């Protein structure tokens, strides 16, 4: 399934970039993350708790940042496993300057589901993805506000 | 009419009392002492290498009794395929192992990697989730036409081009090509007969136990054919002597073909029970049922039909890719060939026919017989083409059919009809059913109504389907010569008890058909006794001598005939006993209405008296054995060929494309009818299932081999308010070669209805000026709306 979205954040690219590169902040921004553990320069182990309509599941897996270009963007690649099936995703995240105090954050990529997750979840996935991306941007805005205070 | 003339009466189904009061006894209802429960670890991927299976955490969990993986059963055979089809060049079909648990790589979503057995169902499920399987995902293929292309991922490393076999039947292709080339008009259809999921109400369920003291197994299974399961499991998979295994198919809640097959779980549970010396039960979850019960249909076809300038069919050429799924299910191989290719004569005199089938493995659930099995695909192909040709040639679709029908023949005074595709039809009157259907429709007025509707924002359409099916499966010698690895006779034992009550043991198996009623009617009628005095016993390999089970609309034609053969033996012996009692010659005794009478006199003795004498033989014919108990194996002389005419009327909303099925007319000739109400019920159910394929159902796999609509939230089943009251009528052309003159009625509805509905949609679209050749099933509002935008 294809995922795309973009949103303008009231902060300079350098500020947004710093947040995305900070493990603790990233853990607060990405919806559903209950644990994020840095295992290398750009690699993490993660536990995600996500509710997909009737199913509520815990995903364990890893996340990697690839093609990292400072203050411009990166590709977030992840493989997540759960008891109800697995998900793998590759999301391109790009930052672009709107003006000195605003940054556009955009993402696009695709997510692949397997097993029960694919069988039961397909119908509601786009709804879930929209909700999660809204949450992601809301969380990011919250972090920016916190930093500005 | 005597009170004991039961044949032809709409007797209420005797089995329904227990079904509708919750007293049915299904496999999952059976709980044995020391019962354990199984749950499976299944692949989330369509195609992946298994890197490792870690059962350590699961094994230490509460309640876990045992866990087995693919490595544990590596030396056990896989489940077999019951029908061998050869390549065109004579090579034997590819038959890769279908293991009880996979060890090397998974080949479809749901493929079983491990079985977890625990004290309770919940503990088994929890522990199965704790089994950690590491996979390396591989590219997969889901579409049969894609799977044969160079470079497609291989489902089995040793099956080139994923091809199980290629096969052809009929006239030489060069002759057919030439006839099509010379035709005045050729109609061509490229279409998909989509994959369907069977959806029986009762999910599959197995409970297997082992008694060490006697070294005997008992398997309770939701099956359509307990003896066949015993044969396949004992002889081909586990190597257990048959006499050490009892297989019981108790009440079964719907099957539609999906419970014919010997599934891996049946054999695996039986293997496990001996290991742990406790009974093991598994009942499929609904999700597993969607994912794993053998699916139906899934053909990709291109077909050309050539006509002369007057509309006579000159030739038919068919090329089909049949998707078999990841492994061979028990009868997967015969469905696209001997149950499909052989039916492509239809009801028409087509002189040249060639059918070419490529059967293909893909990373999907296995595909096998589903109500109609091959015959719905054949009927869909023919009837869509004939209706399309009528549109294209601007001829009336009914007229075009009348022009091409095989003339009536009764199979007695006129010989059977030899088709171009191997079969010989037994008896038929094809124009009769279409004439009756047109009368019921009021065809003359219909075209006027169609014009009126167009003025009211609606498109009205009528669709015809005149079908034939090969049922009463099957003459053993014929199917044996075609590759069947079993005989397809049936067994019927009639045991008259000393008091004249009758127990009947049949190898047919009921899972909704009402055999306990229909068969009892036959027996009561033939013996001139009350139906209350007849009990029908089925489904237990220890009670019934043998049996081939129920599928292919065979029960009354083959199983019923076996019972009649035994009744004839009972009457024959009864005459000898009666003759002794009446001091007459056995040749002078006639039997009618439950009485043995000396011809031309009023001297008679009742059936009950004769029965008692047989068991208390104090005054008895010299040299005659006591008892009144006969068994017969009936092997039919030919298939039976029911046929009929189905007509659908649909209304399309021009704004939304919504299709409403306004009328459905079914005129079915199933030979003699034992219970008209039950036949009507079969037609109703079958029609709705066929309407389901036309308008609602279809398994959807994504490119990664994931089944994306495996739940009732996403897989659309037909509901009561989707169908009008079905208008049924009958015609009787008796079967000339079985003692009841019956042909079978189980699949007729599904076979005839689907093309009628789609043809009606196409007719409605043409009436609105949208000259489309095909619309893909299921015909959703969106597809109709898109067709109208062109």
Which helices and strands, and how do they pair?
The complex is a heterodimer of chains A (149) and B (790).
Chain A: E1 2-9, H1 13-21, H2 23-29, E2 33-38, E3 43-52, E4 55-69, E5 73-82, E6 85-99, E7 102-113, H3 116-148
Antiparallel strand pairs in A: 1-7, 2-3, 3-4, 4-5, 5-6, 6-7
Chain B: H1 16-20, E1 36-42, E2 48-54, H2 56-59, E3 64-69, E4 105-106, E5 112-118, H3 121-130, E6 132-137, H4 144-147, E7 163-170, H5 173-181, E8 185-196, E9 205-211, E10 216-221, H6 226-238, E11 245-248, H7 264-276, E12 280-283, H8 286-292, E13 296-307, E14 313-325, E15 352-361, H9 375-392, H10 397-404, E16 417-418, E17 424-425, H11 430-441, H12 443-454, E18 458-468, H13 476-481, E19 490-496, E20 502-506, H14 515-527, E21 534-538, H15 555-582, E22 589-592, E23 595-598, E24 604-606, H16 607-615, E25 629-634, E26 643-653, E27 659-669, H17 676-695, E28 726-730, H18 748-767, H19 781-788
Parallel strand pairs in B: 1-12, 10-11, 14-15, 20-21, 27-28
Antiparallel strand pairs in B: 1-5, 2-4, 2-6, 3-5, 7-15, 8-13, 9-10, 9-12, 13-14, 16-17, 18-26, 19-20, 19-25, 22-23, 23-24, 26-27
Helix pairs in contact in B: 9-18, 14-15, 15-16, 17-18
What does this protein structure show overall?
The complex is a heterodimer of chains A (149) and B (790). Chain A has three helices and seven strands; from the N terminus they run E-H-H-E-E-E-E-E-E-H. With 149 residues, chain A is α+β, with helices and mostly antiparallel strands. Chain A has one domain (2-148): START domain (Alpha-D-Glucose-1,6-Bisphosphate, Chain A, domain 4, 2-Layer Sandwich). The N and C termini of chain A lie far apart (38 Å). The model of chain A has no long low-confidence stretch (mean pLDDT 89). Chain B is an alpha+beta fold. Chain B folds into three domains: 16-22 and 489-634, Aldehyde Oxidoreductase, domain 4; 31-138 and 200-255 and 259-292, Alpha-Beta Complex (Aldehyde Oxidoreductase, domain 3), CATH 3.90.1170.50; 296-473 and 638-788, Aldehyde Oxidoreductase, domain 4, CATH 3.30.365. Chain B contains 19 helices and 28 strands. In chain B, 56% of the residues are buried. The mean pLDDT of chain B is 97. Chains A and B meet through helix 3 of A and helix 8 of B.
């Amino acid at each position: 399934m294809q995922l795309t979205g973009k949103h303008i954040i009231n902060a300079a690219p350098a500020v947004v970039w710093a947040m995305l590169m900070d493990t603790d902040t990233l853990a607060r921004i990405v919806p559903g993350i209950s644990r994020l553990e840095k295992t290398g320069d750009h690699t993490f182990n993660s536990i995600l708790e996500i509710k997909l309509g009737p199913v509520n599941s815990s995903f364990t897996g890893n996340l990697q940042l690839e093609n990292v270009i400072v203050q411009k963007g990166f590709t977030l690649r992840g493989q997540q496993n759960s008891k109800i099936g697995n998900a793998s995703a590759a999301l391109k995240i790009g930052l672009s300057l709107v003006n000195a105090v605003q940054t556009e954050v955009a993402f696009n990529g695709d997510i692949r589901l397997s097993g029960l997750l694919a069988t039961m979840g397909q119908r509601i996935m786009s709804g879930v993805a929209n909700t999660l991306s809204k949450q992601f941007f809301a969380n990011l805005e919250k972090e920016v506000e916190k930093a500005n205070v | 009419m005597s009170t004991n003339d039961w044949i032809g009466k709409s007797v209420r189904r005797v089995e329904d009392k227990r079904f509708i009061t919750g007293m049915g006894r299904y496999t999952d209802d059976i709980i044995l002492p020391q019962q354990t429960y199984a749950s499976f670890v299944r692949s989330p991927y369509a195609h992946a290498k298994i890197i490792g299976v870690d059962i350590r955490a699961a094994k230490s969990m509460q309640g876990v009794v045992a866990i087995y993986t693919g490595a544990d059963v590596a030396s056990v055979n896989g489940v077999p395929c019951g029908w061998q089809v050869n390549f065109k060049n004579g090579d034997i079909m590819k038959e890769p192992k279908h293991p009880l648990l996979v060890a090397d790589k998974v080949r479809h979503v749901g493929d079983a990697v491990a079985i977890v057995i625990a004290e309770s169902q919940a503990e088994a499920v929890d522990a199965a989730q704790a089994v950690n399987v590491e996979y390396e995902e591989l590219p997969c293929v889901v579409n049969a036409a894609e799977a044969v292309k160079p470079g497609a991922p291989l489902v089995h490393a040793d099956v080139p081009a994923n091809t199980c076999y290629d096969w052809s039947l009929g006239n030489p292709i060069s002759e057919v090509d030439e006839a099509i080339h010379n035709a005045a008009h050729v109609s061509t259809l490229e279409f998909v007969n989509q994959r369907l999921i069977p959806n029986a109400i009762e999910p599959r369920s197995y409970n297997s136990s082992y008694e060490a003291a006697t070294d005997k197994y008992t398997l309770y299974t939701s099956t359509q054919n307990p003896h066949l399961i015993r044969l396949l499991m004992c002889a081909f998979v586990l190597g257990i002597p048959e006499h050490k295994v009892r297989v019981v198919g108790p009440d079964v809640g719907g099957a539609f073909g999906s419970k014919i097959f010997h599934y891996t779980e049946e054999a695996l549970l039986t293997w496990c029970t001996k290991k742990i010396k406790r009974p093991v039960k598994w009942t499929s979850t609904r999700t597993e049922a969607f994912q794993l019960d053998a699916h139906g249909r899934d053909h990709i076809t291109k077909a050309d039909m050539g006509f002369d300038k007057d509309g006579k069919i000159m030739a038919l050429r068919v090329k089909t890719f049949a998707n078999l799924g990841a492994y061979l299910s028990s009868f997967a191989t015969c469905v696209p060939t001997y149950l499909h290719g052989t039916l492509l004569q239809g009801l028409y005199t087509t002189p040249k026919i060639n059918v070419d089938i490529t059967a293909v493995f893909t990373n999907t659930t296995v595909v096998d017989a589903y109500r109609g099995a091959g015959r719905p695909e054949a009927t869909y192909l023919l009837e869509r083409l004939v209706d399309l040709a009528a549109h294209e040639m601007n001829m009336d679709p009914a007229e075009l059919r009348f022009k091409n029908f095989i003339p009536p023949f009764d199979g007695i005074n006129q010989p059977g009809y030899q088709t171009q595709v191997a079969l010989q039809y037994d008896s038929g009157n094809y124009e009769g059913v279409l004439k009756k259907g047109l009368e019921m429709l009021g065809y003359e007025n219909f075209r006027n109504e169609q014009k009126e509707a167009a003025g009211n924002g609606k498109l009205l359409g009528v669709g015809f389907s005149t079908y034939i099916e090969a049922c009463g499966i099957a003459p053993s010698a014929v199917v044996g010569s075609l590759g069947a690895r079993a005989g397809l006779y049936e067994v019927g034992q009639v045991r008259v008890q000393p008091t004249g009550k009758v127990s009947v043991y049949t190898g047919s198996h009921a899972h909704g058909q009402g055999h306990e009623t229909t068969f009892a009617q036959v027996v009561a009628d033939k013996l001139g006794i009350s139906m209350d005095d007849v009990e029908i016993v089925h489904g237990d390999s220890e009670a019934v001598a043998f049996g081939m089970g129920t599928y292919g609309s065979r029960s009354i034609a083959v199983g019923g005939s076996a019972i009649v053969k035994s009744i004839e033996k009972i009457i024959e012996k009864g005459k000898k006993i009666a003759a002794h009692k009446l001091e007459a010659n056995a040749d002078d005794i006639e039997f009618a209405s439950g009485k043995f009478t000396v011809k031309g006199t009023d001297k008679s003795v009742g059936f009950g008296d004769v029965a008692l004498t047989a068991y208390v033989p104090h005054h008895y014919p010299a040299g005659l054995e006591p008892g009144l108990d006969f068994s017969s194996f009936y092997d039919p002389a030919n298939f039976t060929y029911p046929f009929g005419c189905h007509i659908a009327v649909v209304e399309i909303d021009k704004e939304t494309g919504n299709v409403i099925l306004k009328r459905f007319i079914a005129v079915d000739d199933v030979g003699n009818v034992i219970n008209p109400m039950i036949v009507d019920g079969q037609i109703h159910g079958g029609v709705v299932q066929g309407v389901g394929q036309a308008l609602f159902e279809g398994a959807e796999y994504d490119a990664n081999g994931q089944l994306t609509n495996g739940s009732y939230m996403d897989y659309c089943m037909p509901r009561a308010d989707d169908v009008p009251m079905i208008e049924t009528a009958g015609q009787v052309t008796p079967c000339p070669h079985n003692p009841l003159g019956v042909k079978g009625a189980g699949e007729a509805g599904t076979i005839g209805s689907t093309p009628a509905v789609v043809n009606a949609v196409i007719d409605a679209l043409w009436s609105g000026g949208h000259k489309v050749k095909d619309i893909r099933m299921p015909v959703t509002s969106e597809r109709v709306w898109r067709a109208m935008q062109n």
